[in-house]
């Protein structure tokens, strides 16, 4: 039986594959860190959105009350010459 022919590029391919695996692991860690950062940013933005919605509600209430005060002031000035 003839001896098995060795692949002359096998060692180089193994080293390249090892480097690829290492880089993919580093990329995976970086993506995990980025995902955590995005989650923190989203939480922060959610808090800001809630405050903005509350502020808009207060603003609408103030506008409504001012309009009612102006309307009642105009009505009372009409009834009291």
From TrEMBL:
CC annotations in GO: DASH complex; microtubule; mitotic spindle
Keywords: Cell cycle, Cell division, Centromere, Chromosome, Cytoplasm, Cytoskeleton, Kinetochore, Microtubule, Mitosis, Nucleus
Main location: nucleus
GO BP field: attachment of spindle microtubules to kinetochore; cell division
Keyword Plastid attributed: no
Keyword Heme included in the entry's annotation: no
Entry's localization field: Chromosome, Centromere, Kinetochore; Cytoplasm, Cytoskeleton, Spindle; Nucleus
UniProt similarity note: Belongs to the DASH complex DAD4 family.
Protein name: DASH complex subunit DAD4
Species of origin: Malassezia restricta (strain ATCC 96810 / NBRC 103918 / CBS 7877) (Seborrheic dermatitis infection agent)
Source taxonomy: Eukaryota, Fungi, Dikarya, Basidiomycota, Ustilaginomycotina
